[in-house]
UniProtKB/TrEMBL annotation:
<dbReference type="Pfam" id="PF24862">
    <property type="entry name" value="SUS_EPBD"/>
</dbReference>
<dbReference type="InterPro" id="IPR012820">
    <property type="entry name" value="Sucrose_synthase_pln/cyn"/>
</dbReference>
<dbReference type="Pfam" id="PF00862">
    <property type="entry name" value="GT-B_Sucrose_synth"/>
</dbReference>
<protein>
    <recommendedName>
        <fullName>Sucrose synthase</fullName>
        <ecNumber>2.4.1.13</ecNumber>
    </recommendedName>
</protein>
<comment type="function">
    <text>Sucrose-cleaving enzyme that provides UDP-glucose and fructose for various metabolic pathways.</text>
</comment>
<dbReference type="GO" id="GO:0005985">
    <property type="term" value="P:sucrose metabolic process"/>
</dbReference>
<dbReference type="InterPro" id="IPR056736">
    <property type="entry name" value="SUS_EPBD"/>
</dbReference>
<dbReference type="Pfam" id="PF24861">
    <property type="entry name" value="SUS_N"/>
</dbReference>
<dbReference type="Pfam" id="PF00534">
    <property type="entry name" value="Glycos_transf_1"/>
</dbReference>
<feature type="compositionally biased region" description="Basic and acidic residues">
    <location>
        <begin position="807"/>
        <end position="819"/>
    </location>
</feature>
<feature type="coiled-coil region">
    <location>
        <begin position="42"/>
        <end position="69"/>
    </location>
</feature>
<keyword id="KW-0808">Transferase</keyword>
<feature type="domain" description="Sucrose synthase N-terminal">
    <location>
        <begin position="9"/>
        <end position="123"/>
    </location>
</feature>
<feature type="domain" description="Sucrose synthase first GT-B">
    <location>
        <begin position="270"/>
        <end position="557"/>
    </location>
</feature>
<dbReference type="InterPro" id="IPR000368">
    <property type="entry name" value="Sucrose_synth_GT-B1"/>
</dbReference>
<comment type="similarity">
    <text>Belongs to the glycosyltransferase 1 family. Plant sucrose synthase subfamily.</text>
</comment>
<feature type="domain" description="Sucrose synthase EPBD">
    <location>
        <begin position="159"/>
        <end position="246"/>
    </location>
</feature>
Amino acid sequence: MASVPALKRSDSVVDTMPEALRQSRYHMKRCFSKYVEKGRRLLKANQLMDELEQIIDDHTERSQVLEGLLGYILCTTKEAAVIPPYVAFAIRPNPGFWEFVKVNANDLSVDGITATDYLKFKETVVDENWANDENALELDFGAMDYSIPHLTLSSSIGNGVTYVSKFLASKLNGSPCSAQPLVDYLLSLNYQGEKLMLNETINTASKLQSALIVADAALASLPKDTPYQSFELRFKEWGFERGWGDTAERVKETMRSASEVLQAPDPFNTEKFLGRLPTVFNVVLFSVHGYFGQSDVLGLPDTGGQVVYVLDQVVSLEEELLLRIKQQGLNVKPQILVVTRLIPDAKGTKCNQELEPINKTKHSHILRVPFRTENGVLPQWISRFDVYPYLERYAQDASDKIIELMEGKPDLIIGNYTDGNLVASLMASKLGVTLGTIAHALEKTKYEDSDVKWKELDPKYHFSCQFTADLIAMNTADFVITSTYQEIAGSKDRAGQYESHAAFTLPGLYRVVSGTNVFDPKYNIASPGADQSVYFPHTEKHKRLTQFRQAIEELLFSKAENDEHIGYLEDKKKPIIFSMARLDIVKNLTGLTEWYGKNKRLRNLVNLVIVGAFFDPSKSKDREEAAEIQKMHTLIEKYQLRGQIRWIAAQTDRNRNSELYRTIADTRGAFVQPALYEAFGLTVIEAMNCGLPTFATNQGGPAEIIVDGVSGFHIDPNHGDESSNKIADFFQKCKEDPEYWNRISAQGLQRIYECYTWKIYANKVLNMGCVYNFWRQLNIDQKIAKQRYIQTFYNLQFRNLAKNVAARRDETPKPETKE
Ligand code: UDP
Ligand code: LCN
């Protein structure tokens, strides 16, 4: 990548490109002639570079061009559309920032164009009539966000709640009237009709300010641990209701924050005060597609990390809610419902059970509601790509059941994945409840050109429904929870998953000129953790789950080959490199096996253990998985790996799995996550929690989880030799200095404790619930206006698309299943 001279943020490509082209005019004329000679087409960044390299074959001259401004522009170009004599470029100089320019190949003139014009260029390549249709549907969700303040720096993206607190602080500042919305909000708080925080005695900001001074003086004379009940009556007369705290000390602290906010609002106290308000008691989490259960579901189609995430999330949210409610001095039982699909044909799981208490919680349940049609209840599991026709009715049925169980509407709704997010959006808009959404992984970025090629992919994946549902959810959400920064805005070189929804086109259907804005303060990073009562360090000997010792010994080291394991480990003293995932192409377990097979040095140093799928490709329902199973067999033969590899079938018991990670750590081995792309990667943090040094893909979330060379290592899945040598270097170094292994293990744990725990997650998410609840009230008029736009889009687009899926249901081949 060119290092000089980088574009400054103030420089626009349209201003600098003409001069850059002029400097290399001779080469550029030839290069652009080559770009346009094949006629209309779409070009990716690597193709642009390859063709440039073919044109300028002299190494020195090529380096000169690439090291200049032009090289920089080309390096930051993500794609280009060619309509001779023009080449239109989509350039991304920084995360979230895009520029579009069109270059005339004949005279090298450069014009800046809008996102809309660029999309029309792309459309012209695939569907010219539609591109030229003046009445083609164009969506501009940004037009509805005219008064919402936005962030401006790439580095601020993902810290939405902090910035909303800043915006709120400045909104509440000024005259006493500015704080009136806060007083009105406090007056509106109640639990089942019983007032909380304030009663009508205090109905203005100045009355609140004075009452807080009186209360502060009264509290000063009380011992810190005096229970609220002992001064409740006096406070009630002054206008205060329950909710400020459980003890004199806590009440005093909360009141101090309130006084600070009224006196001179600052973001810290604003967030602190709002975070303490008793606004969230009942929470609904939607995770619609099955199989969703607490046991025996991992390994079933579509059921992967999302289920693990949601179940751990509930435990942590309930714990945090109970703590907050106690500290608020209230005697309320929170309720959390995880709402999923009831599948009558449950294949031995509990997915046909309507209500199921959630393990490790006191008040949380899984609620299962079936998919219904005019023909009755749908009995069998269906792929998540096929669920769209059922969702509207599902949302209605689920809402009725939730309201019945909760005896009212929830305070917060959180969606998971496209289907859950759409259902959550429908319910939240109807009931006027605060909505958070979680994508886990957005499908659009997983498939190259999934937007312009949507017609090709639609029969199999129904992306037209999926992208429409995603747009609806992103725009309805009051806040979006992501696991990493890259999920929102990518990295220097790669666009983020949400960012790729900013402007895109589905030719023939609609053009999105503003689908979402990653600078919107609704975007927040709250990374998940791993259950630390299950995934704890291998060194905590007294906690080790010794009951699994014998089974794991046999799983790893017996020579027998059976339905649970094949291959064997000849030298049991060697450290083990371990990987565990679904056997999808993207997970790249076959890639890792091949790297290992090819690298003699690595093979001498360590054994390889893989957990994934099963061994008979003919038994797989998924073509992709079947091919990967076959490939594993071929690689084992090709590289004669027997004696050095153990391949274990998919495992469903997380307790036993945790002991497996720890047993690998006992061998002073490592975990390797070699995925071609990983949205987050729960296995990475599970391994790190067990103290297992971890090598993980630099493509996606793991690149953020691990600080390379400190808390683990990054590997590049596209450069296998380099990656396998990096792993070999580590083990070589550990041989020379055994302390090195301990250091990386300890630093991995430190990273987890600082950034990736469910406690940190739950605190952040509940703060979001509290802060965005108030933020949405403040912006309610605009919210309602936007909701009308979204409803129109839903009614006129989504419903028809879902109907088409239903109509085509029995004719199309079944899609492959992977999460
Ligand atoms: N997992 C498992 N058994 C397996 C493979 C995976 O229990 O055979 C678990 C793994 O421990 C992790 C989850 O499934 O908790 C996978 O989550 P991850 O985020 O790594 O990937 P996803 O499958 O969601 O893409
Ligand atoms: C989906 C994925 O693809 C994984 O990368 C995540 O870890 C998982 O969901 C949980 O969010």
